[in-house]
Amino acid sequence: MMQKLSMFGRRMKGSQRRLTLGLCCMASKATSPPMQAILRRLEACGDFIIEIFPEDTIVEKPVEEWPVVECLIAFASAGFPLEKCIAYCRLRKPTLVNDVGAQEVFRNRVAVYRTLVDWGVPCPDFVIIDHAKVAPLGPHVLVENENYIVFDGRKLKKPFVEKPQDGDRHDIWIYYPCSIGGGAKKLFRKVKDQSSEFDANQNEIRRDGVYIYEPFLLTQGTDIKVYTVGAGYVHAEARKAPTVDGKVQRSKDGKEVRYPVVLTHTEKAISAIIVKAFRQTICGFDILRTDGGSKVCDVNGWSFVKGSQKYYNDCSTLIRQRLLEENGIVAPISNMMILGESDEVVQGTFPEYSADEAMEEQKITAGTERLRSVLVVMRHGERRPKEKLKFKTKMPSLLAYFEGQEEEMGEVKLKSPEEMMALKRSCESALQDLKDQIASAVPPEASTASSDGTPVDIADAKKKFEEQLVAMKADQYNLELLVEVLDLKDLFAGLERKVQLKVAKWRPQKDSAPRRPSQVLVVAKWGGELTVSGLGHAEELGKRLRLGLYPNDPTGLLRLHSSFRHDFKIYSSQEGRCQITAAAFTKGFLDLEGDIKPILVSLVNSDSYAQALLDEPIPRKERDAVKQKIESLVMLNKDLNSPEVLPLACPTPHTGLLEAARRIGNPLALLKRLETLALEYLVRIAAAKEAACEAMRHHADPGTGDDKEQEEADDDVAVPLGQERNQHEGPGPKIPFDLKDSYKRKWLHLRRKEHRWWKLYHGFVLPQTSGSDDSSKFQYDISKIPDVWDNLYYDMLTHRHYLGEDSCRIAEAMVDLLLPLNEWLCPSEYGISSEEKLRIGVDVTWRLIGKILVDMEFMIQEKMGKLDEAGQSHAESVVCDSEGRPQTQSDISLEHSVSPRGDIASQEDLVSPVPSACQSPAAVNVDVSRLDAMSANGSVSQVPLEAPAAQRTLSWHANAGSGSVAGSGPAPLSQDAMTAVPSSDDAFSTVGQTHLKGSKLTRLTPKLRNELKHALRDASDWHPRLNEEVAKLTDIKCTRTVRSRIYVTSASTMHSLFNILRHGQGNGEQGDGCGIVSDFDNVTDLNYLTHIVFRCYERDAGAAGQGEENDAKGLKASHRVEIAMSPGVQVVRDGQVASWPEGREFRAENCSVAPLQVIADSVDLATFETFFVEVLKQFGCQNASDGDDEEFASD
Question: What's 32's DSSP letter?
Fold first, then answer.
């Protein structure tokens, strides 16, 4: 081949003149494999004489002594004298591949962002802070908080990104909010296998220069690297983002693994604009694919693809064509510069197979069906017990939260760190006022008179005074407890704390005046954080499902995910335990490393859309009816298994519930026995606590003793039964999560345990009727039974080593007693009869069911030609994204809503895939393959899940400046531009209003401008589909997309979905309907990490043998659904799940996540859809859901 190339070069030399082509760059860049691959091709074509400038000539000699060339490739890197090169170009005026003068912009990230903004290229919203000009050194004001910064009145919440102004610095940091533990991810140039590290102690921003600050954008953990060769050619690759775990994926020869990506038309248009804006033919930049569309976060200048022969062939061909044309030489395109694998050694960076893996894939792709969808709905992992504080108050500071609220609302929920801090400040101020009032309160005297001079009844006055004083002291006590809760500092505690304010009483209404509250119920919730074993089990489950659910991928899920055949997204409920479970699961699912905080921020979706799917509470009417039934059955003082009670307690043919009823016997007698054991357990905990206190004293270092701590230990005794129950309210002793002293940790845990159990005991055992010994008069709060079980379960699996043998023996007896009652009670909370279970199930999960149907049938839209390469619908009237969220064409414009996150609202935030809350599912006749939601009577309108927030005008350069720039190059920067970015009053909760008529978009062609206008049509979680060219390059035979969706939620959603699967097949007590699942009635305990897996397989056309290719019914017939379930963490005995384990078996080492069992092997997709649609139609929501369940706390 080389001989042929030389002959071709000599022939070309004789037919036309050859151009001198110089390469002016640092030696390390000139000798790099990509550059050498390009130069070999340019030399082989015979049109150029290559002249490589020596590095010492570039650095040391004047430009007059540099080689004289006609064409020049020149680009800057570390140590390169860019000013000298610019002078050389002015002197010799060579034809440039990349404009040398324009490369100055890459040394300044501010200049890069300004250029992007000026040219209308979408980039993250940002603010620039020159810390040398911040007060007291300058006019600007910067306020730093543990969860946000405020610069000149503009707030930026964590997580946010901090970038140095200097383009040569790569120390980019990402700061995380303290609500998830704080810390910062520090990015740096790749060192071996690391590109970032997490620093848990870095919470304050740097103040040593000029930095750019921008919100951290969700990208599903992937960065897109784009490489251009002129405006008409672009190559894109994906890599794992360094913000996820900092671990660099490398190929066998040590190169970072990247994967080819298919860009959208809009992204190609962005590439063309960047080439023109920065005047760089060869240019690399980074794209972030976010809910708000694609955004450019960095432009690197001269960049080459590593290891792609196709790119080298294309790049060298385009460089040759450009240089010849600009020098007036017309020459045919030469095939001699197209080299093959045998012509050079290329270090590949694409994923590789072993021979065995390649054979396995051939075997699989030759099969008769392909995996298309994998959906997992799962409960969160093991957690600490949840706790609650409830009190009523008339404090004006709390009543003020209802000012301006609509009357029918009557409730305020506070959860964000900012809301919690504001509430804490308000409570602390009110506390001080109360203390002052109590201290200055003076009882009335006999001489006291009323305002009109008449004498006052002194006895009545003293009584009122005492009542007011008691009320003030009660408010003081309750507010002190609330401040303690708001001040908790446990790891991830910020995700678990929340406060609800509900109107308890209204003031008398006068005429048509609006009602005002006179008393408010305060409900503070905390606890429920995942345990260490909960994190471990979630991560291990992710690994297990990664290897077990994807048969079409011989190496497991990882290769599939990285090749972008995988369309992956994970949703989480708003609850912190669900979010942390989702992050830990994802860590194992995608084989990530490092701390889970970056994974939580980067990959887990817990926005308003996810909350609407996964956080629907049980409607109050149904909840109250079920609660009343359960209480009446438990307090009946009769055996549940008796002939007269059993049909009421277990009306369904559920073998697990029937066995639980048999084991319970008389529930009231059981509760009496439980009360006795609980008191004995408290005595044992107190003894273990005292022993731990003595051990702590014995091992304490006398020189470092803490007087306050010693005083607490001396006074720490068990409170007698006769004491006021409010001694046990509040969060109890605080345990620093980073405490190293094991003796002190044990003592504090036992103190908190004793505190928690006393509080639980007083809430569970209600006061008896005075003077009565009749056992029938005993009263128990049945809603506390799940809390008692949670505490027992937590103690047995987590703190056996703290409790000691005596305490554990009693706890084991309580477990044996309570297990069957809990197994009956928890499922019964979600309905006792089949009709109740189905009605509650539909009320809670109907949105999720609609989403499941969309996920299972996405390929039907694709097959019927309704999706373009960006995953968008071609329909003129309704446009659906790849998640199935419809959007009319009129909505796809520059007018969009602000999402609850404060950024550009995604289609997920705006439109539900299923009917709205005001519309009963019973009225819906869904054709899910089209998602047009057409009913028999016509079109059913799509209503947002939530009312959109304030409207705003959106443009591609919402943070653009107003200055104009001469020419087509980058914008020059003034000093003022270094510290101010035009924006709205709150730069990060809204985007400033900018209109097209004042935009630099008018420079662009109408075609490009039109493409940019429609950029937000990109689906929020769209992944590119591989075309034939990319499939050939990566040696992937099958290019069908596999969609994976993970939904992490609470027990209420899991029980509701299980009830639909279990009882929907009957539509009645006799179970005589058509179902889709086999019997799994032996399952009652949906414990932590319970999960249901839906998998959809597409049969090959020949195997299906029915339906037309473009017929929806026929396409559904060619797909089958498999359903599997696992009851989550269970006690394992002799390798099998123990159906009714004994108390002594509840140990951490005996518990693991139960394996999946198939409950539906082969259900046609059409049958699967019909089953759910019919259940929705028959049991559609009839009740409004009105807030969190305050009574039952099984999750």
Answer: S
* Range of weakest confidence among 227-236, 734-743, 911-920: 911-920
pTM: 0.69
- pLDDT for the residue numbered 179: 78
**Residue 840 and residue 1055 in contact, taking contact as beta carbons nearer than 8 Å:** no
Strand 938-939 relative to strand 293-301, pairing: unpaired
Residue 296: which region, alpha, beta or left (left: phi > 0; alpha: psi -120 to 50)? beta
535 within 8 A of 382, measured Cβ to Cβ: no
Residues recorded for the chain: 1195
**DSSP secondary structure letters along 230-273:** STT-EEEEEEE-TTTS-BPPB-TTSPBP-EE-PPPHHHHHHHHH
Task: Give the integer Cα–Cα distance in Å for 80 and 84.
Answer: 9
* Contact call for residues 19 and 49 (beta carbons, < 8 A): yes
Say how far apart CA 1021 and CA 568 lie, in whole Å: 8
Report residue 1097 as tokens. Answer: 């397989």
Q: Is the pLDDT of residue 162 over 90?
A: yes
Query: Which tokens belong to 687?
Result: 């003894």
Backbone angles phi, psi at 926, to 5 degrees: -90, 125
In the prediction, which pLDDT does 1046 show? 94
Q: For 610-666, how does the pLDDT look when each residue is reduced to its tens digit (9 = 90+)? A: 888 898 888 888 888 999 999 999 988 899 999 999 999 999 888 889 999 999 999
Q: Are 197 and 246 in contact (CB under 8 A)?
A: yes
> Which carries the bigger pLDDT value, residue 741 or residue 813?
813
Query: Does the pLDDT at position 857 exceed 90?
Result: no
Report the DSSP pairing between strands 1157-1164 and 1119-1126.
Answer: antiparallel
Burial class (CB in 10 A: 0-12, 13-18, 19+), 44: buried
Per-residue pLDDT tens digits for 1152-1190: 999 999 999 889 998 999 999 999 988 875 544 444 444
C-alpha to C-alpha distance for 944 and 918, rounded to whole angstroms: 10
pLDDT of residue 640: 92
The answer to whether 757 and 791 are in contact (CB under 8 A) is yes
Neighbours of 442 (CB within 10 A): 6
User: Do the beta carbons of residue 795 and residue 811 sit within 8 Å?
Assistant: yes
Mind spelling out the 3-state secondary structure of 638-684? CCCCCCCCHHHHCCCCCHHHHHHHHHHCCHHHHHHHHHHHHHHHHHH
Write down the mean pLDDT value for the chain. 75
The highest-confidence range among 376-385, 618-627, 904-913, by mean pLDDT, is 376-385
Long-range contacts, stretch 104-108, CB < 8 angstroms, 24+ apart = 105/278, 105/970, 106/76, 106/167, 106/299, 106/300, 106/301, 107/76, 107/82, 107/166, 107/167, 107/168, 108/165, 108/166, 108/167, 108/973
Summarised one tens digit per residue, pLDDT across range 247-301 is: 555 555 555 555 556 566 577 778 888 988 999 999 999 998 887 778 999 999 8
What's phi and psi for 505, nearest 5 deg? Answer: -145, 150
Are 97 and 281 a contacting pair, CB within 8 Å?
A: yes
Peptide bond into 136 cis (omega under 30): yes
> Is the confidence at residue 877, as pLDDT, over 50?
no
Question: If you write DSSP's letter for every residue of 174-210 in order, what string do you get?
Answer: EE--GGGT--EEEEEEEETTEEEEEETT--SPP-SSE
Place of tokens 């409570």: 427
Q: How far apart are CA 120 and CA 1015, in angstroms?
A: 12
Question: DSSP characters for 382-448?
Answer: -BPPEEEEEEEE--HHHHGGGTT--TTT-EEEE-SHHHHHHHHHHHHHHHHHHHHHHHH-----TT-
Residue 549: name the closest of 1151, 1122, 1166, 1154 by CA.
1122
* pLDDT greater than 70 at residue 752: yes
364: pLDDT strictly greater than 60: no
Say if strands 71-74 and 19-24 run parallel, antiparallel, or are unpaired: parallel
